[in-house]
Specification:
Length: 242
């Protein structure tokens, strides 16, 4: 008798504890204003406050709603190729001059910057070499859809503007990087993706004559002198010894 009364009491306590656990609000109900809320605090009763005089946008350029380009005061686009990756309806095929200016027209500087930014922003999903097998895609995102391997025939043939466009606007489940990567850096990354593609698909003919000569010498692949180029030629069943 006594024991069962105790059990009933224990059950009650357990049930109330469960109920209480369901009641805590912690951070779910925060005393904060949502956009357009009414406020008792300000004389105009609006929670949204006017911008402080002299405020400037964080980005130095105003962007159109569809995020594809820079809109001038009159609504026209300036330099479509640079800001959108498109010239009219066609994807551009080379890095626009305006992007090269940031890098003093130095291709190496462009690629070095592209490598740095690619490794920061793209590597986690697309992998160091661009094969699409980055840690994040392997660990979950790819279960929805794996990104295409950048070394596929299709991705190698696609215009460089496609890479710029995807960074700007996102693609499928991949979100836009427009707010984090400025246009010059987007072009630098796009150029670096091209370099990655070349690194996995180089032919001996792509090398300067002098390097090709070295590659043809017997045992060139083994000496390691030719480094990546020799490796790439091998991958193609190239001319070096087996
Ligand atoms: C959070 C993971 C993630 C990051 C970071 C990321 N991507 Fe992606 N990307 C994806 C996924 C997933 C897809 C495939 C989306 C789909 O097909 O729905 C994709 C697709 C793409 C495509 C389109 C490929 C095609 O099929 O045409 C390009 C190009 C691309 N990404 C480039 C980049 C570049 C450049 C960066 C760095 C600025 C980057 N991505 C950063 C996950 C990512």
């Amino acid at each position: 008798m006594k024991a069962s009364a105790k059990m009933v009491r224990a059950a009650w306590i357990a049930a109330s504890l469960l109920l209480l656990a369901g009641c805590h609000v912690d951070m779910w109900n925060q005393p904060k204003y949502k956009p357009q809320d009414e406020s008792e605090l300000f004389p105009d009763r609006q929670a949204d406050r006017p911008l402080v005089t002299g405020t400037v946008p964080r980005r130095e350029r105003p962007w159109s709603d569809d995020t594809t380009g820079y809109v001038t005061a009159t609504g026209g686009r300036q330099d479509d190729a640079f800001y959108t990756g498109y010239q009219g309806k066609n994807l551009v095929t080379t890095v626009p001059a305006q992007a090269m200016r940031r890098f003093d027209n130095d291709t190496k500087a462009l690629l070095r910057r592209g490598q740095y930014q690619y490794n920061n922003f793209c590597l986690p999903c697309h992998g160091r070499s661009g094969d699409g097998r980055g840690m994040i895609t392997q660990r979950g995102l790819g279960q929805r859809r794996m990104p295409r391997n950048f070394h596929s025939r299709e991705m190698r043939d696609i215009e460089i503007g496609h890479f710029y466009d995807v960074i700007t606007n996102g693609f499928g489940v991949m979100f836009s990087y427009a707010s984090r990567i400025d246009p010059e850096d987007r072009w630098a990354i796009a150029a670096y993706v091209r370099a990655l593609q070349l690194s996995q698909n180089a032919r001996p003919e792509d090398l300067p004559a002098e390097e090709r000569q070295r590659l043809m010498q017997p045992g060139a692949a083994q000496t390691g002198g030719g480094g990546g180029a020799a490796g790439a030629a091998n991958a193609h069943g190239g001319t070096t010894s087996q």
